[in-house]
Amino acid sequence: MQSDIDIAKNAKMLPIADVGKKLGLTGDDLELYGKYKAKISAAAIKREGKKPFGRLILVTAINPTPAGEGKTTMSVGLGEALARIGKNAIITLREPSLGPVFGMKGGAAGGGYAQVVPMEDINLHFTGDMHAVTAANNLLCAVIDNHIQQGNALRLDPRRVVFGRVMDMNDRVLRSVVVGLGGKPNGMPREDRFMITVASEIMAVLCLASDISDLKERFGDITVGYTYDGEPVKCRELKVHGAMAALMKDAVLPNLVQTLENTPCLIHGGPFANIAHGCNSLIATKLALSLADYTVTEAGFGADLGAEKFLNIVCPKIGKTPDCVVLVATVRALKYNGGVKKADLGFENVKAVKEGLKNLLAHIRNLKSFGVNTVVVLNHFHKDTEDETAQIRALCESEGVPMVISRAFEKGGAGSEELARAVVDLCEKPSDFSHTYDEEDTTKVKIEKIAKNIYGASEVVFSTGAQRMLSEIKRRGLDTLPVCMAKTQYSLSDDPEKLGRPEGFAITVKEIVPKTGAGFIVVLTGDIMTMPGLPKLPAAENIDIDENMEISGLF
């Protein structure tokens, strides 16, 4: 079997202008980044946005494991399969972060024969969007410290600056830093921190803004810190939100690429789902819905994170809920959740599959609680056995949820045609959508409803600092904002070691941070970190380039 990067290098790509033609876009609608990548112009976005929406398909998964579930692969394969059965389809994905590319997870452009290309470009610098987000974020940080140095007219308390610096790389030593050392010319010494770029509020704003004007307004609304009297200071008061938006003038436009089978794909924005809201940009998703009859979009990590946030935070802003949700599972992941070690996942273990099905069941029932039409897709691996697969099918039948097997990794779109037909069928069925919480609920109640109704927690424990912030949120009239939970992706609880379907656990809320530019409240639980670290053997050790500029080791 060829590696992902070898398969991608042998792809017969179309000029990106020809891919655009499939969507009704002309050469004037595209801003080319070489032969195979382009941004879609603001004029085209405005024009196409007047068209009615097509069908929306959300791809999510059970809790991820070190074995990998292939959610992006399934998204790409489904988009290709829809095209193969004659549907006008498009895929919308997030941009990969350099952190996991060089860290543990590796690239994020799909796998096998269900990939988006050019794979190397997408996984590395792509069109520079990540760098623009980083630059805009750190411009604001520089202006904050300069304002304090130059007299501090806003009386911003250096001890209560809440807007931190970012970089798009896993670097644990930057989680807590001290800036301004070296004497008065270097600014006022204070504690600061770095987050990974994809967890930043700037990234969230990019992905939730409707256009460049809305982006600039949201930048202005960002809370950067608090005065000595405890009142919030907004970015707008520092008069830098316009410059930040100027840095983002290209990054705000979605990127058009293609799959191995030349199916159009928009890749734009890249928030993580464990520490951010985990969905591609609102601009790209709405544009895709206007350009095609079927839009396949993906939410990060398990349905308890990315899907929950897509349904509770993003859908109200799109003005549409999914016509169908695809829940990805693998035999390997179910065995892992059933207690099997990673090294032993290739051996048949029906008992472990049965135990791991508790995790799949929890996600099925959570999606049912939203009232969305759901299909379970089993991402097939060659060591899966009939007896193991039969256990999964029996559970789905008992829950009244269709289940299909996909071989997208080995066959591309041809391996997902059964899934495509099931999706088309479900898209025609009515649904009765409802949110996990009401807008009028307090922030505390919203957190408790997610923790108890989605995660299965028995109680929620708030730290002293979190309790103070709940009072501050109420005082400032921010209770109407949705909540964005930051939690480990590996478990339904806030403890990554509690696999399967844990019960009787408490969710610990250690910190609550209003993100007034993004328009949601971030809730940090357990030991979640907003700046990941590298593993003992980072993926970067396997990545190389030769004298012919050929990259290897991305996958």
Properties at a glance:
single chain; 555 residues; alpha/beta; twelve-stranded mixed sheet; four-stranded mixed sheet; 19 helices; 19% strand; globular
Task: Give an overview of the whole structure.
The chain is an alpha/beta fold. Helix content is 35%, strand content 19%. The chain has 19 helices and 25 strands. The strands form 6 sheets. Strands 1, 2, 3, 4, 5, 6, 14, 15, 16, 17, 18 and 19 form a 12-stranded mixed beta sheet that branches. A hairpin with a 4-residue loop joins strand 22 and strand 23. Helix 4 crosses helix 17, helix 7 crosses helix 8 and helix 14 runs parallel beside helix 15.
Quaternary organization: single chain
Category from helices, strands and their pairing? alpha/beta
Q: Mean pLDDT, as a whole number? A: 95
> Could you tell me the strand content as a percent range?
15-25%
User: How much helix is in the residues?
Assistant: 25-40%
Radius of gyration: 23 Å
How many H/I helical runs? 19
Gross geometry: globular
Number of strands: 25
Distance between the termini: 12 Å
Biggest sheet character: 12 strands, mixed
* Low-pLDDT stretches: none
Summarize the structure in short.
This protein is of the alpha/beta class. Helices cover 35% and strands 19% of the residues.
Q: Layout of SSEs?
A:
Blueprint: H1 4-9, H2 16-21, E1 30-32, E2 38-40, H3 42-48, E3 55-61, H4 71-84, E4 89-93, H5 98-102, E5 110-111, E6 114-117, H6 119-123, H7 129-149, E7 156-161, E8 165-167, E9 177-179, E10 190-192, E11 194-196, H8 201-208, H9 212-221, E12 223-227, E13 232-234, H10 241-247, E14 255-259, E15 264-267, H11 282-291, E16 294-298, H12 303-318, E17 324-329, H13 331-337, H14 350-370, E18 374-379, H15 386-399, E19 403-406, H16 408-411, H17 417-427, H18 443-455, E20 459-462, H19 464-475, E21 483-486, E22 506-515, E23 520-525, E24 544-545, E25 551-552
Parallel strand pairs: 3-16, 3-17, 4-15, 4-16, 8-11, 17-18, 18-19, 20-22, 21-23
Antiparallel strand pairs: 1-2, 2-14, 5-6, 6-14, 7-12, 9-10, 12-13, 14-15, 22-23, 24-25
